[in-house]
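User: Please run a holo structure prediction.
Assistant: Happy to. Please share the sequence and the ligand.
User: Here you go; the ligand is flavin-adenine dinucleotide.
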Amino acid sequence: MQANTIRSIYALIHTGPAMAQADLAPLEAASELAKRCQGIANAVLVGADPDTAVERARALGMENVWVISNPAWPQPLQTQQLTDVFAAALASGNSLPCTPDTVFLLAAGAVGEEIAGRLAARLNGVPLGKIKQFEFDASGHMSATRTAFGGRLNTTLNCQAGPFFAAVRKPDNAMAAKPIDAGSTAVHHVLHSEPLRPAYPVTPMERSEQHAALEGARLVVAGGRGMGSEAGFTALYDLAAKLGGAVGGSLPTIDAGWAPVARQVGQSGKYVSPEIYVAIGISGTPQHMAGIDPHTKVIAINKDPEAGIFQAAHIGVVADWQEFLPALVSAWEALRPAQSNGA
Ligand SMILES: Cc1cc2nc3c(=O)[nH]c(=O)nc-3n(C[C@H](O)[C@H](O)[C@H](O)COP(=O)(O)OP(=O)(O)OC[C@H]3O[C@@H](n4cnc5c(N)ncnc54)[C@H](O)[C@@H]3O)c2cc1C
């Protein structure tokens, strides 16, 4: 507990050609957190193609960026290999201070959360899990809020002595982050020459379906129990193909076999961060909404005007989807004749 020292906040990021915008969330979160506690925001980037992340860190006015790489590394690195590289960097001495009030942020998701836990164990730190919000009291002590039971409860963790390892999403006010002095970021390039431990053998699997993948989609058309049957999902796949999006589903639709489990959105399914999420025949329970990024614009189509989804929706349509979707598709085709004809 060092309330009077300047707190260091680190974003730990795995860079590479497959990096998505959500993978950069720790940069935004570290910058925002450092501003609120008058601390210092730094980033440690491990992997190939770091330029996008370096530019974002510069634009956010981060103090230091360490770019750790080795041209001989495979792509992507596996979690245990990433943990080794991050742990070696953090344990390397004075250049990356790791004191009891230091906070390390990784991207929310299976990989980031696993690395956060592994690093906390390696470096005698405290794993905080997936954190929604950090707060500081007048004396600078930190608490962290974590949701439980699908967003129904908030748990507040009193962060006494770390270092702390947390997984985060992009903060709600990230767009407001302004560069302090974009020219002041020091970028340190480090060649990690220690050999990597052998990778676990991975056998690539053929995708069992040819529809657009949910991961990374900019538009998601998701169906719920209100779709009524597997045939309802055929209409969703058609709509998604026309709009250039991917199909998602609520838990009951996966249980019913209307869509594969890889398309489940929610607390026990996938977390998606498209620009637009069209929720059709979905009631909007906390467990489902927990899978949608707060920055996503939600369009809800539901025949019940009292459906909870309308509380979260930016645009709501009270209608039976069987009547509304054909009208929507006709309107779309009238507006975009060239694209809908496949030209
Ligand atoms: C531990 C736990 C984890 C869970 N994880 C998840 C998860 O990851 N993802 C998830 O989705 N759920 C999850 N659930 C389940 C969740 O609680 C809800 O049961 C589920 O989200 C409801 O799915 P739904 O909205 O499709 O169905 P319903 O709640 O039954 O809603 C159906 C909606 O369709 C509307 N509708 C019906 N017919 C039409 C029509 N013709 N046109 C337009 N609208 C129509 C209805 O008005 C209604 O609002 C979890 C639950 C628990 C306890």
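Residues 150, 224-226, 250-252, 264, 266-269, 281-283, 285, 287-288, 291, 301-304, 307, 320-322 surround flavin-adenine dinucleotide (CB under 6 Å).
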